[in-house]
Amino acid sequence: MDEKQFEAELQQKGMHAPRLTPEDIDATIESTLFFTAEDGFYGNDAIMSTEGLPPGLALLTFCVLVLRNGAKVVGINHGSISAANFDAEIGRREALRAAREKVWELEGYALRNRIAAQEHRS
Questions:
Q1: pLDDT, one tens digit for every residue, the chain (122 residues)
Q2: What is 12-54 written as a DSSP string?
C-alpha cells in the first residue's frame, strides 16, 4: 500500500485527528536529487584508487531530499544482487521511498511535540 492509498483508507474510516498526509511530506521537500555511487566516484577528484572503479557502484542509488528548513535526508537503494536485474528507475524509486520514510519519521516527531505541547497547555 502506498502513501496515498493509506491516506484514503484513513479518510474513509473517518480518522481526522492531527496527522501527517503525503501532501504534508511533499510540502517539506525543497528539492530531490539522485545519483549513483559510480557518479560520485567519477565526480570526486579527491578519490584515489589504484584499482579503478569498484564493481557494482552503478547499482547503488542515492536520493537526497533537501527540506525547506535546510535539513538533508538520504535514502539508499543498494540495487539488485545481479547486475542483469538492475533497473535505474526502480533504484531511484526505492531510494526516494527510503528517504521519504525518514521525512515521515522526522515530521511525525515534530507533530507529536506540537500535540504534546497543546496537551500540556490544556
A1: 788 888 889 889 988 888 999 999 999 999 999 999 988 888 766 555 656 777 889 999 999 999 999 999 999 999 988 999 999 999 999 999 999 999 999 999 999 999 999 888 87
A2: HTT--SS---HHHHHHHEEEEEEEEHHHHHHH-TT---SS-SP
